[in-house]
Write a structure and sequence with these properties.
homodimer, TIM Barrel, 3 domains, 3-stranded antiparallel beta sheet, 17 helices, 14 strands, about 40% helix, about 20% strand, 2-isopropylmalate synthase activity (chains A, B), Citramal_synthase (chains A, B), branched-chain amino acid biosynthesis (chains A, B), PYR_CT (chains A, B), transferase (chains A, B)
Chain lengths: ~525, ~525
């Protein structure tokens, strides 16, 4: 079994920043992660430095089972975070070790398990249909069985605040059962999201006093107070806070990880992230929005592109004199910027950092760095986004620093794609490309499932006799985002293409009003990038 | 002079629900109201029943001057609300009655004036460049001049919380000056938005004790706590709360009027709206988003279309038994609705609930219900998703229950789309459709920015001479998701199309390996759905 405590944060195990983007956050309408998406989300959260990553519900959801299997097989090497499996206590009248759902939690090999249990007597009696004694036994048995198997266990007390208000004794009995079973943290959940900050603080204080247990907090945003409620709970004594990236979640969503973390770090002075983590908040927020395929909220606290933007007016000149009189924090603290940027990528410091990551010393070429910043900014204004497309960014930086190869592996003359919905309902796609490669002009035609597939097939057919490495490259993922136009302009399409050669994966981006052309640009970048690394 | 107190709310003047959508809310990037827009916003806010509507800054902004002139000329007959003009205290070294900006406030004929004044010593000295004594005189003089002219005056103490933390004596002197001048309310403003709920409550309690003045609260959302901060301030004694519709405002925005009101009414039991007002919250929120030309936030607390939506699964059958166990309030209280999302885990219970929402009694047709469940499950296994596509689901349920119309509005024979990337780099898209409509076979060709745009244009060209209602229908949003295939199968594309006819919005879905065909399916459903509702 691997470690059960987060590594590298100054507060260590004293305070848990616990992320449930992959489980509770995935309840948001429209979100549907692939297993590869889930692995990418977990990697980004680990880069940020959260303490715990709840990966899903193994046994209940096949994708989650696969996620944990691939994580255990070495696809997810976490530096800071500990992986958590979520699940339910045993069913009524069954021994914990004989409950297949509980066994699936063990099989996931996650070192920590968070169990959900009902703590509102009405839910226990009407939904679970057992008495309180059995509900408590279900909690205690399951916790102690998992602890006996070497797992660290947290208990999510579902509907806790409503239950405690209605019948405090039952709610506390459930917590005590978890404590007796050996749970390390009992998490007070505002499952229906109806609480307000002062009430949360009062209840947390009271429960801490009455139980002596280590308390966590899990808030939903139905009163638009999830962040305020979470912070109030921490100020009242909770030392474990559950959040989701960008507040994704069912109904009005959950407490936003980035706002909660910003507040803990900047307002309460708590070192809940490893050094340098806070400055990654903005980047990670945007990258996770990209994977969820949800447009980032420009007005999001701390990390939104407008979070520190000031309309010219009342303060414009005063701001220049003393920006901190008009901002609640220095935006750099959370990796954001006071200017209105299309994204945070377009700063010199971050681009330099990014260059270093890609093996390019941009600090040594200040003019190339300036011109790269300018180029990235102007492309981002047109809808490009390099946050999730390192390979395209690398090509751009190579071009700006004069390090691009003199000769591209191929050049396009033209292409044509024809899509037919024929009489009878059959749908066909056919593409013809004319390219120059290896000193020759090549024309090739191919069919595909759709326009992009046909274009990719025709391009491969034209190039593969000339480029020996091409056959190893596969298009492994493809994402599309329609970007609303500015008034008076048309929408544009942004395409992200993830490629793989069996050894590594790389992502490229293309933007155009026409989705096929946008895809073409990303496909070309993918092949050019491979040709550099071959 | 007209009345200065809100009419028709049970709490009357004891509590002020104060809206600044038209002034502080208009600071949000991208918002630009015409005078007609401003009048429409004010009418909607009055219908809702807010107590005070801050209309703008007459004298400083020409549009605002015109707005007040037209309101005074009778274009704005307010039933509940009182109109407020916003402005600044007199300039340093000038008598209030000689300050042209102060005179413009009188000229606006608004019965109430809210004056903004600096209360942070650093802002007084560095931005205003006067000493504290003169800053206080500016406040007292201007307030007493306006009160002498028959106006009711509120004072916005800008940067109050930061100022009070840094130098409480100066901050309190400014409030006292306003009190001496005759201000009815002094509003503590968290201008930079950096506060948290427990701190706000503590400061409000302290200031109430030390000054004895009537206190208001104005919060910005930079810590994602604007709503929680506002409510905490009210619980600590503030009796005047300033908000903006949907939280529009500079940076991360302001406290959202709808969430604050929902909390005051549903959580604190305060009758801050006239009878029936709360049930208008959802409608007014969406209407104001429409005027601001900002897509409504589907996950907004209380009023978002997903605010009470549950993913089927864990709870669907329990929800049917007792919805209030799974909602923090009855959604009808705020004019919202409980939607049940149909997802991979679609069961009979959730589909039946969904049918009821759409006005179909599936319980009375158990066989149709079974077959619909089977159909939805098998379609979802192929990548269809109905959770965001009510209109497509309604068409499916109508077909399963034998209630679909016998004759579709049109049928497709075939289409062809040609995409060209020509020598020189120009990209073109052209579509030809062959359809049968109104007893005729019609062929039409059109160009577009991309394949879907061209197809939509060609279809409209073919149909619009025959379907009179078609021109009112607009494609308002378009989303694409590529779904990874199961091993051995190909990826498919899921397209969501949101349509609008100016009165309502509906969403349809299409799934196919070919993105253009998927879009076609969703476009067709959108038009068929409209033809049923026309």
């Amino acid at each position: 079994m691997t470690r059960t405590e987060p590594a590298g944060t100054p507060l260590g195990d004293q305070f848990h920043l616990y992320d449930t983007t992959l489980r509770d956050g995935a309840q948001r309408e429209g979100i549907s992660y692939s297993v590869a998406d889930k692995l990418a989300v977990a990697r980004l959260l680990d880069e940020l430095g959260v303490g715990y990553i709840e990966g899903g519900w193994p046994g209940a959801m096949p994708k989650d089972t696969e996620f944990f299997a691939r994580a255990a097989a070495g696809e997810l090497a976490l530096r800071h975070a500990v992986l958590v499996a979520f699940g339910s206590t045993r069913r009524a009248g069954v021994r914990a070790e004989e409950d297949s759902q509980v066994r699936a939690l063990l099989d996931s090999r996650a070192p920590v398990v968070t169990l959900v249990a009902k703590s509102d007597v009405r839910h226990i009696e009407r939904a679970l249909r057992v008495d309180v004694a059995e509900a408590c036994a279900m909690v205690e048995d399951t916790v102690s069985f998992l602890v006996g198997e070497g797992r660290r266990v947290f208990l999510d007390a579902e509907h806790f605040f409503d239950g405690y208000a209605y019948d405090p004794e039952t709610a506390l009995r459930v917590l005590d059962a978890a404590g007796r079973g050996g749970a390390d943290v009992v998490v007070l959940c505002d499952t229906n999201g109806g609480q307000l900050p002062l009430g949360i603080a009062e209840t947390v204080r009271e429960v801490a006093q009455r139980t002596g247990l280590r308390l966590g907090i899990h808030c939903q945003d139905d009163t638009a107070c999830a962040v305020g409620n979470s912070i109030a709970a921490v100020q009242a004594g909770a030392t474990h806070v559950q959040c989701t990236a960008n507040g994704y979640g069912e109904r009005a969503g959950n407490a936003d990880l980035f706002a909660v973390t910003g507040n803990l770090v900047a307002k309460l002075g708590m070192e809940v992230l490893p050094e340098g983590g806070a400055a990654e908040l903005t980047r990670v927020s945007h990258a996770l929005a990209e994977i969820a395929n949800i447009a980032p909220d420009t007005h999001q606290a701390y990390v939104g592109s407008s979070a520190f933007a000031h309309k010219a007016g009342l303060h414009a000149s005063a701001i220049k004199v003393d920006p901190l009189l008009y901002n609640h924090i220095d935006p750099a603290l959370v990796g954001n910027d006071m200017r209105v940027l299309v994204t945070e990528m377009a700063g010199k410091a971050s681009l330099e950092l990014k260059g270093r990551e890609l093996g390019l010393d941009l600090a040594a070429q200040p003019e190339a760095l300036s011109s790269a910043v300018k180029k990235v900014k102007s492309m981002e204004a047109q809808g490009w986004s390099f946050e999730a497309a390192d390979a395209s960014l690398e090509l751009l930086l190579l071009a700006e620093t004069g390090k691009a190869p003199a000769e591209p592996p191929f050049t396009l003359e033209s292409y044509r794609v024809v899509l037919d919905h024929r009489v009878g309902g059959e749908v066909g796609s056919e593409a013809t490309v004319k390219v120059h490669v290896g000193g020759q002009r090549v024309i090739a035609t191919a069919e595909g499932n759709g326009p992009v597939h046909a274009l990719d097939a025709a391009l491969r057919k034209a190039l593969s006799p000339h480029l020996s490495w091409l056959d190893s490259v596969e298009l492994s993922d493809y994402k599309v985002r329609i970007l609303a136009g500015h008034p008076g302009t048309d929408a544009v399409t942004r395409v992200l293409v993830e490629s793989s050669d069996g050894e590594r994966e790389w992502t490229t981006v293309g933007v155009h009003a026409n989705i096929v052309e946008a895809s073409w640009l990303a496909l070309c970048d993918a092949l050019v990038h491979k040709s550099l690394r071959k």
